[in-house]
Design goal:
The complex is a heterodimer of chains A (182) and B (253).
Chain A: H1 6-12, E1 15-20, E2 43-47, H2 48-55, E3 66-68, H3 76-84, H4 91-94, H5 98-108, H6 112-133, H7 145-150, H8 154-176
Antiparallel strand pairs in A: 1-2, 1-3
Chain B: H1 11-18, E1 22-27, E2 35-36, E3 39-40, E4 50-53, H2 54-62, E5 66-69, H3 76-87, H4 144-154, H5 162-182, H6 200-236
Antiparallel strand pairs in B: 1-4, 1-5, 2-3
The chains are: A mainly alpha (182), B mainly alpha (253).
Biased composition (Basic and acidic residues) (chain B): 223-232
Protein name (chain B): DNA replication complex GINS protein PSF2
Keywords (chain B): Chromosome partition, DNA replication, Nucleus
């Protein structure tokens, strides 16, 4: 993946819950006990890029330093909520780079169910974004207007902007030939 | 610094490309044949109708040296037929058919490599001849929206019923855009969406959005694709090491 891509850097900076498998000397400050050894089986919250490195065993007979769980935005509670109604969930509050985080997690874990749910969520919300960008009203609750747009995560915001820009450029071009002076 | 422009044509660029299409002009003054980059134009002898590129026709129209004859598909009856077709419930999933393409000039040869000059067949946006004005009645050519709006803006007096045509064009545009949006529901990371008959400006409008959606779906589905590929390879050769990614983009040259 791109080294300089800002969304990529921000995705990798998101935290994931980990559990240590080995006692780690001199790292006690990570769990609040400075200048002591970090004990086995401590739960920590590490950024994704670090957790990914530590997850890999350094040598065939040496165990890995940590084990990783799915981060809270991708756990059962959220997944079930997405299955029920993908549109009303505030994805931004879960994680600003929700889908990118999901893609990275799927690289490390194999979870068919999660793939399906994420794909379906993305598709449904994308259709919703398209509807709103084109100015369709279509029976949305009046009070919900701001809510959905504020809850868009990064990738969806880009889709929203692309969609608005498309309509705007077409409108601009169609309107501009009225006053064009060759 | 990275180029900030989006990939693909913007609507303004598509509109500009439309101006290379040929239209029929009814001259009011004589004009000699001009040597253009695309070839020489025919000399203008009033009152004989002559084909000219749209940009030249619009220029002459502005200078009041010529009138532009609307193409056959841009008449009231033709547009009404197309609108009836589009709004018919039975055709809710398809667009109105595009005009007939000219005969293919090359024969497909499976032994020649991809994109070799002997097998490349030009298609709609790049077809030299118009396809836009010689389109028969009842078919919307690729640049229909751009051509219609340019002609209605500059040459409205050449239409017998410009206002009615404006309303029909607007209705057509709304119906087709809503059909296009319905197609978004079935976008896939790897599959295609059949939108035969869509126009240039319509594609330009949704290009950014659809590109983003398909890209996102592709990234999310990537893990699944790799799992599937590993399973296939394990089934194919016993205990073979999985290949590196990146073979999706290679063409078999």
């Amino acid at each position: 993946m791109s080294y300089y891509s800002l969304p990529q850097i921000q995705t990798d900076a998101q935290k994931v819950p980990c559990t240590t498998l080995l006692p780690l000397p001199h790292l006690g400050h990570l769990s609040g006990n400075p200048s002591q050894t970090l004990e086995n089986n401590t739960s920590l919250s590490l950024p994704l890029w670090l957790a990914e490195m530590l997850l890999i065993a350094p040598a065939p007979n040496t165990p890995a330093a940590i084990t990783m769980d799915l981060p809270p935005p991708l756990q059962h509670r959220v997944v079930n909520a997405l299955k029920a109604n993908p549109v009303t969930l505030d994805l931004r509050a879960q994680a600003p780079h929700f889908y990118a985080l999901g893609a990275r997690m799927l690289e490390l874990f194999e979870d068919e169910d999660l793939v399906e749910v994420l794909l379906e969520t993305f598709r449904t919300r994308a259709v919703e974004i398209a509807d709103r960008a084109s100015g369709g009203v279509g029976g949305r609750a009046a009070g919900d207007e701001g809510g959905f747009l504020l809850g868009l995560e990064e990738e969806e915001k880009r889709l929203w902007e692309a969609s608005r820009e498309g309509s705007a450029s077409v409108g601009k071009w169609l309107g501009s030939e009225r006053v064009e002076d060759l | 610094m990275a180029l900030p422009l989006p990939p693909g044509l913007t609507p303004a660029e598509t509109g500009f490309l439309c101006e290379t299409e040929l239209v029929t002009v009814i001259p009011r003054q004589r004009l000699e044949s001009l040597e253009l980059l695309g070839g020489p134009t025919q000399p203008l002898n009033p009152p004989f109708p002559t084909p000219l590129p749209l940009w030249l026709a619009l220029l002459l129209k502005k200078q009041r040296r010529a009138n532009i004859q609307p193409p056959a598909w841009l008449t009231l009856s033709s547009l009404r037929t197309i609108l009836d077709f589009e709004t018919d419930d039975r055709t809710a999933a398809v667009f109105s058919p595009p005009p007939a393409l000219p005969q293919p000039t090359t024969i497909p040869d499976p032994d020649l490599p991809y994109l070799s000059p002997g097998t490349v067949e030009l298609s709609t946006p790049f077809l030299k001849d118009t396809h836009t004005t010689s389109a028969q009645e009842g078919a919307l050519p690729y640049h229909w929206l751009e051509l219609a709006s340019l002609l209605l803006a500059s040459a409205a007096d050449d239409f017998p019923d410009a206002d009615a045509i404006r309303i029909l064009i607007r209705d057509l545009r709304e119906v087709r855009m809503s059909k296009l949006r319905k197609g978004f529901k079935v976008l896939e990371g790897g599959a295609g969406l059949k939108i035969n008959g869509v126009g240039g400006l319509e594609v330009a409008e949704v290009r950014g959005f659809v590109g983003g959606v398909v890209d996102g779906l592709r990234r999310l589905g990537r893990a699944r694709e790799e799992m599937r590929r590993e399973r296939e390879e394990e089934g194919g050769d016993t205990g073979g090491v999985a290949d590196e990614d990146g073979s999706e983009d290679e063409m078999g040259l």
